[in-house]
């Protein structure tokens, strides 16, 4: 191959090739990092919540306009509302609850394996329900059992302290609390630390239940459930699972039933699991969308740069090409010349780009707390740009090869 | 001469149309990407009260339990406890002071054609309105006596007032909130600070707005729960009074000083207060007490997120790429005009004049690219604001950014044109003429 003459020709006229190489390097550095971030965000957004059939789940926040209701009033009213919801055709299960996974707002608590610890082991999302969240949300029990109806406590938030001592935890939380244990049922966890720490016995372990914030990292799966009906105001939140495809109708009928029951003196807010999920990852999707757009544009701009420069070189070298053709070079030789030249330039760009990608990644890791770039993106990016380079130069190179020796050499001084 | 070169530049846009179009488009896309992200960053990191942001202060005590503390740990919350809020309201220094909680509940309109609906608002003290210079459309803030007695008085926002009363002046009427009648003392005019700095914790910097305000003392008298973030490290115990007495942090506090120079005095006062509280057996960590002015506060709460910075960085990386690309294309465009330069030089044009002409031509390309980039940026911003309400709030083009767009585009193009222009000037007339 005629690498030596191509190289010395390149070195004699450096500006153009350098510009192309710089473009390739810049694009590669940005593209590798951008795609890595996109993939990372996608992975985060696609983590399972533990809730089966999210598209069948919705929530109703119900507040009644009652003056000075008594505790018993409120408990009775909530039981009635739940029965009304259960009676709506198409409802599979109903549970009263305090919060929803991925809703970005709710109760959290600190739990520890022993009250003698200085710090709590971890924070955890604190779900309470007098009904079965396992059944309503379709959580998968990995060990133990669901709560028994006799374990449910009605709690007057205005005067009672917590009294229940049973808890269901997620597998991730159980493993975090007792890393060496073979089984977790029967273990005792503590809310907080020190002498005030309240103990609770694990009766069940669910495979997975994401927290309200669905944080990035292990904290997303730190959740506990307790069998409590918390009452402080004539307000309650219900989570309902509808039959497949029935959700919208069930929401409407459920709202109507509750409204009728309260004589319209009620405010109802309906939310779906899907909406919560969408809101939780909105920013991530926005960023991913922007990065993909920028990546596509990067490729286009780089390709257009290569095409532009290659076209220019073809124009500049019409005469040389004509001479070479007249001296016996075949079309394929001309084509090869331009492609080899381009591969050399692109390779230099790719080499610089790999360093640039690592440097950029280092910067992102240290200042913006992003993750390290896996090698696959570098290899893939390098291959992509080499291919892009050949594809972009092919058109101009083909035009060069088509130059007929006669026209090209005409008028040569 | 400049006008002539300018015209020439415009005419030369049509020469090598593909190359020129590519150049303009590249430049436009680069400018659009950087300007739209820059606009969002600019709005997000804006100072909502530039004339007094150095006089508004947020105090934070490191008031957690001693057990899980190691020296140097940051405070575990960005709010203060009720006890500290009350103490600071009563005795703290400064021209104005306010503590704020979130209030939410049901509102029953007097009008029969409106069904009850849920509202959210804030529970500050009277000073809040003057401190943040909130404009009133009707009436005024409640009185100091109302603060003291925890009277059921309410200030509505313009939006809520219009929803309830249309364009009528509602001052003196009553609003039924959570089953209690509140007397309307005023309606504030449109007040839309960005970021929503006054109650970021629990409400978000670019999220919903407060719909009304009632005195903190009134909300507490009705034993309303905080609508926002509440952080308890210990067990508060049952009941509302126990919650008020606890070390749970759930209130946001603001001091307004007469001058920024009083900051040291305020810090001293805080330290003295914390020492006093320590004697009462509180604040066992003996950590330093933080004081943030408005801009420091926004920075501390990371109002401009890492993702926004990332977007801006990448967009500028992209602009850089576009510039490199433009340099290459300009080089191509100018290099085929060596003959023209040769003739002009031979006819007496100085290098300087050639330089001016080609640079002007470059500037024309930049101008056209800038115009197109501006249109693209506007399109991108409106696309972005369709995504969510929060983004709609920050994706707004203002005049500063408009000017920046143009300057950026033209400057970028001229910068990119320097090398090709210089190369074009290097043409030796004799050689060119000979080869013709």
UniProtKB/TrEMBL annotation, chain A:
The topology of this chain with respect to the membrane is: Multi-pass membrane protein
Q: Has UniProt tagged this entry with the keyword Transmembrane?
A: yes
| A GO molecular-function annotation | transmembrane transporter activity
Report the Pfam families cross-referenced here: FtsX
> Is the Transmembrane keyword given for this protein?
yes
Quote the InterPro entries the UniProt record gives: ABC3_permease_C, Macrolide_Exporter_MacB
Task: List residues traversing the bilayer.
Answer: 287-314, 334-355, 375-394
A GO cellular component annotation here is: plasma membrane
Source organism superkingdom: Bacteria
Q: Which residues form the ABC3 transporter permease C-terminal domain?
A: 293-405
Q: What is its main location?
A: membrane
Q: Which UniProt keywords apply?
A: Cell membrane, Membrane, Transmembrane, Transmembrane helix
Please list the coiled coil stretches. none
Instruction: Name where it's found.
Output: Cell membrane
* PANTHER family xrefs: ABC TRANSPORTER PERMEASE YTRF, MEMBRANE COMPONENT OF TRANSPORTER-RELATED
| Family from the record | Belongs to the ABC-4 integral membrane protein family.
Q: What is this protein called?
A: ABC transporter permease
Taxonomic lineage per UniProt? Bacteria, Pseudomonadati, Pseudomonadota, Betaproteobacteria, Burkholderiales
TrEMBL record, chain B:
Keyword annotations of the record: Cell membrane, Membrane, Transmembrane, Transmembrane helix
Cellular location(s): Cell membrane
What organism is recorded for this protein? Pseudoduganella armeniaca
Q: What is this protein called?
A: ABC transporter permease
Name the InterPro entries on file. Answer: ABC3_permease_C, MacB_PCD, Macrolide_Exporter_MacB
Residue ranges of every copy of the MacB-like periplasmic core domain listed in the record: 20-240
Q: What is its main location?
A: membrane
Q: What is the lineage of its organism?
A: Bacteria, Pseudomonadati, Pseudomonadota, Betaproteobacteria, Burkholderiales
The regions listed as transmembrane in this protein's record are 312-336, 357-379, 399-419
Provide a GO CC annotation, any one.
plasma membrane
Q: Which GO terms describe its molecular function?
A: transmembrane transporter activity
> According to its record, how does it sit in the membrane?
Multi-pass membrane protein
Domain ABC3 transporter permease C-terminal positions: 314-428
